[in-house]
């Protein structure tokens, strides 16, 4: 009698725990299902948007992981109650609740995995696309650097070089934001065997781009320093040259007016020419 009452009390306690836990899980499942259904479609073109979607969804997936144990406890307690059911009707009712919870949980997990996979694929595609575009830009600038002429030796040519380099520096400055954006690149880690290889390749690409970018910026600074004041220097040099040239012409003209030494007959003529 006492043992029977004890078993009944234990079953009632287990039932209450199951029902409370079941209510919490069903409430959470409903909220999670609504949150997932309200998420915007994965953007196909905008890297910044996809990156934010990816980060936000990581939080959602984290909540799924945290709630997995709670769902497991409900299913476990339900199975215990099934074993203690006093009749088929009671057993069927509990099993129906367990199927409902398990079905909704599995569907939520499947839909979440599908979205996570779509985000990973899109993020990888857009990041690789941007890396290709950056590599192309860097290559074009590097070719432009190689084709730069030596420092000009005339004011007109130096002004052309200064103008061209000013445009190049503006181009480099405008690209700074794109380079800064590389700090926000995400190394997507999945369950595949090539995950580590992919992460390593991304790190190498970012390192190479960083080194090439620094080399371009340093070259641009050195070139700007070399061009600074070059036009004025060329103008001053031209002015000095013209002045010297004019002086030399005057001296040559004076020399042409002098008589040869064997034509000088009087001492006064020698003194005058000296």
Structural class: mainly alpha
Largest sheet: none
In DSSP terms, counting alpha (H) and pi (I) runs of 4 or more, how many helices?
7
The tally of beta strands, per DSSP, is: 0
Q: In terms of per-residue confidence, which ranges show pLDDT below 50 for 5 or more consecutive residues?
A: none
**Average of the residue pLDDT scores:** 83
Just give the CATH class of the largest domain: Mainly Alpha
By oligomeric state, this entry counts as single chain
Portion in beta strands: under 5%
CATH second-level architecture of the largest domain: Up-down Bundle
Helix content: over 70%
Distance between the termini: 150 Å
Write down the CATH topology of the largest domain: Methane Monooxygenase Hydroxylase, Chain G, domain 1
**Element order, helices and strands?**
HHHHHHH
Radius of gyration, CA atoms, in whole angstroms: 42 Å
Keywords: Repeat
Protein name: Spectrin repeat-containing domain protein
Pfam family, one: Spectrin
InterPro entries: Spectrin/alpha-actinin, Spectrin_repeat
Can you offer a commentary on this structure?
With 274 residues, this protein is mostly helical. The protein has two domains: 1-131, Methane Monooxygenase Hydroxylase, Chain G, domain 1, CATH 1.20.58.60; 148-259, no CATH class. It has helices spanning 2-38, 47-84, 88-146, 155-180, 195-227, 230-256, 267-273. The longest helix has 59 residues, at 88-146. The protein is rod-shaped, with a radius of gyration of 42 Å. The protein starts with a helix and ends with a helix. 8% of the residues are buried. The model has no long low-confidence stretch (mean pLDDT 83). This is Spectrin repeat-containing domain protein. It comes from Necator americanus. Pfam families: Spectrin (PF00435). Keywords: Repeat.
């Amino acid at each position: 009698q006492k043992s029977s009452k004890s078993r009944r009390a234990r079953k009632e306690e287990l039932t209450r725990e199951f029902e409370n836990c079941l209510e919490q899980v069903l409430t959470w499942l409903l909220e999670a299902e609504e949150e997932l259904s309200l998420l915007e479609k994965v953007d196909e073109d905008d890297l910044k948007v996809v990156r934010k979607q990816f980060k936000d969804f990581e939080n959602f997936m984290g909540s799924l992981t945290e709630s997995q144990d709670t769902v497991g406890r409900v299913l476990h307690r339900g199975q215990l109650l099934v074993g203690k059911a006093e009749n088929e009707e009671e057993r069927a009712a509990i099993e129906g609740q367990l199927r409902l919870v398990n079905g909704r949980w599995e569907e939520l997990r499947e839909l979440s995995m599908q979205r996570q996979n779509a985000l990973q694929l899109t993020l990888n595609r857009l990041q690789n696309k941007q890396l290709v575009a950056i590599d192309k830009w860097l290559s074009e600038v590097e070719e432009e650097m190689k084709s730069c002429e030596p420092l000009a030796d005339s004011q007109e040519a130096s002004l052309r070089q200064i103008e061209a380099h000013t445009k190049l520096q503006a181009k480099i400055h405008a690209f700074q934001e794109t380079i800064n954006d590389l700090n926000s690149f995400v190394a997507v880690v999945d369950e595949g065997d090539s995950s580590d290889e992919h992460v390593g390749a991304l790190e190498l690409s970012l390192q190479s781009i960083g080194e090439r970018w620094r080399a371009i910026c340093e070259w641009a600074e050195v070139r700007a320093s070399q061009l600074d004041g070059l036009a004025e220097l060329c103008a001053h040099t031209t002015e000095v040259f013209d002045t010297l040239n004019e002086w030399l012409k005057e001296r040559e003209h004076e020399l042409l007016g002098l008589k040869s030494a064997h034509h000088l007959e009087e001492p006064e003529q020698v003194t005058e020419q000296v």
